[in-house]
Amino acid sequence: MYAVIMAGGGGTRLWPLSRARRPKPFLPLLEGGRCLLEATVSRLAPLIEPRDVYVVTEARHADLVRRLLPTVPAANIIGEPMGRNTAAAVALMAHAVERPGDDVMVVLPADQAIGDEDGYRDALFAAVERARAGDMVTLGVEPTEPSTGYGYVIAGGEPTVHAGCATYRVERFEEKPTPARARELMASRAAYWNAGIFVWRRATVVEGLARYAPDISEPVRDWLVAVARDDEAGWPGAGIAHLYGGLRATSIDYALLEPASLDGRVAVVPASVGWSDLGSWSALRDLRGRDGAPVLSEEPPAHVIDVDGRNVLVHAAGGRLVAIVGLDDIVVVDTPDALLVSSAAAAQDVKKVVDRLKAEGREDLL
To answer: Residue 347: what are its φ and ψ, rounded to 5°?
Structure first.
């Protein structure tokens, strides 16, 4: 059993703290200043030892990952020339990491928070047990609200028990629904949020990618062969980056899981583990806040003063005093070169700011 952690993504909804040079997995967002990547690795113990943890990230972040994860062997950090979404990342790790075909690969995003870590490990172990028989398995988060921001996994049939947990065959996946459809899905009690956590044998995912996504799997293998050739010849690998850059940029859900589910090859383990994808500043406020009290986060030498604030998140990383007075349901994020002030309800729309900066060519702020 081994873990593949995907440490990438833009994290644009956490701008201005999340930037291309230091995206969401590497930010000190958790209590005690821990980053999400560090928390992802630590919660795997004792299921998976650090020597069996592999991380795929953009090449420009590889040294940062090695510094953040000193217990993970440096050779286990594998860099992509550029991000091409999760299907390419999974294909790369399936082909690049030399493990026996019956070893089970646990694929995890590096940018999630989990409240119940014991329950999380129990669900992972049940998924591993089901995957050993050849299924592709996903963890399905039991929804707490009819959210339109997540994709859903629809379970069907009678449950089978693995490692004490009920598991189900996946009937289909549904992408972000309308509000009315989200309410229907939640009422069905057979729909779960798609957490992007997948478990399968290495041979299963290699065969599945070859069958359902050969336009990704085969070029990834070609790129790895070219990299090995360059390494042997002492050539730089930059000249072959175009082989990777030409890959179809799509998620592993679209490329593999959705078509495989139509053939009855995908299973789901329901999990209620206090999961959050921390997809916005308001989600971080909800994770760290208690009973409407302000969430005040700072990095020295910054300082925050709150007077009568409620349901407020203030993240001060700009090196100056930030004072708020009488605010409710507001997010304030201060950095040295940009200040964000948003209602918590509109925090998902921070991405629109990033889109506008891109359109204006403001690469210095991205």
So the answer is: -60, -25
CB atoms within 10 A of CB 9: 18
> Any idea which residue has 């919660």 for tokens?
43
Which whole number is the average pLDDT over 48-62?
94
**Ranges of H-type helices in the chain:** 36-42, 62-68, 85-96, 117-131, 179-188, 202-212, 214-233, 241-245, 252, 258-262, 281-288, 350-359
Mean predicted lDDT score pLDDT of the chain: 90
pLDDT tier at 296 (50, 70, 90 boundaries)?
confident
User: Which 3 state secondary structure label does DSSP give 361?
Assistant: coil
Is there a cis peptide before residue 46, judged by omega within 30 degrees of 0? yes
For residue 265, give the 3-state DSSP assignment.
coil
Task: Compute the chain's Rg from CA coordinates.
Answer: 21
* Separation in Å, CA 261 to CA 26, 46, 165, 203, 256: 33, 31, 20, 17, 9
Q: Give the chain's length.
A: 366
Distances (CA, A) of 324 to 175, 275, 328, 350, 353: 38, 30, 10, 20, 23
Distances from the Cα of 78 to the Cαs of 65, 74, 81, 173, 291, in angstroms? 10, 9, 10, 30, 42
How many other β-carbons are positioned within 10 Å of the β-carbon of residue 57? 26
On the 0-12 / 13-18 / 19+ scale of CB atoms within 10 A, 228 is exposed
The predicted model scores a pTM of 0.91
